[in-house]
Specification:
This protein has 218 residues and is an alpha+beta fold. The chain has seven helices and six strands. The structure holds iron/sulfur cluster.
Length: 218
């Protein structure tokens, strides 16, 4: 197996376009400039993080998110904001920056309540095409980092739409959950081993920062 580290977003980028993944993540020939939506999303995440963590008052223009977050604050348990987790290839916990890390991710909010955990991911974008798989990965990392946790309730909180999409995971199903990442990880491994990074052109190519790609017509 090739020696690489991954996160949910990196794996998704690879699945969308291996060539873009290579240019941005491996060779680092280009950088993705943050869009207005990304900048806004980061600001909201930061405001919600500090509100939950230290009780820092939400800025006036984010006050409408307060009832949603107050419901989360009311859940009993230890609240961990922007919580960083990483695992080795053996799926054992390690520090986020450890050399032996294999996969890592940051959960917006983790609440540990005895043998239950809650994982919340704030979303500032559209709730039309939710990708719940990132919650599955965070639940697997939570099971590894918190051996007492048997059940995880997780959800994507679309703050702009007042919409919460819940999921539930059980420790007994962890092996099966890992299997759901096996196919894209095998493909990614093959790309590293063979140094093959196929382009996957779509209408979104016009927004791609890989200016040298033949499919980028901007
Ligand atoms: S322009 Fe399209 S095909 Fe080329 S790297 Fe970017 S996303 Fe991939």
């Amino acid at each position: 197996m090739a020696n690489f580290t991954w996160s949910f977003s990196a794996l998704k980028q690879y699945q969308n376009c291996p060539k873009q993944y290579y240019e941005l993540t491996v060779a680092k020939n280009f950088v993705q400039s943050p869009s207005q939506a990304m900048i806004y999303g980061n600001q909201v995440h930061s405001a919600l993080e500090h509100y939950v963590k230290e009780g820092t008052e939400l800025p006036k223009y984010y006050q409408r998110f307060k009832p949603l977050v107050d419901d989360l604050i009311a859940i009993p348990g230890d609240k961990l904001t922007e919580h960083r987790m990483a695992l080795t290839k053996e799926k054992t916990p390690c520090t986020f920056g450890a050399k032996e890390r294999w996969v890592r991710g940051i959960a917006d909010l983790v609440i540990i309540d005895d043998d239950h955990a809650f994982i919340i991911d704030y979303k500032t974008g559209s709730d039309k095409y939710p990708d719940l798989k990132q919650l599955r990965l965070m639940s697997l990392m939570t099971f590894a980092h918190f051996p007492e946790v048997k059940k995880v309730k997780a959800g994507l909180l679309f703050v702009m739409h007042n919409n919460f999409m819940p999921e539930e995971y059980h420790r007994d199903d962890a092996e099966k959950s890992w299997e759901s990442f096996a196919v894209p990880l095998t493909r990614l491994d093959h790309s590293y081993e063979s140094n093959t990074w196929q382009a996957n052109p779509t209408p979104l190519c016009k927004f791609c920062p890989v200016k040298t790609c033949e499919f980028n017509k901007t």
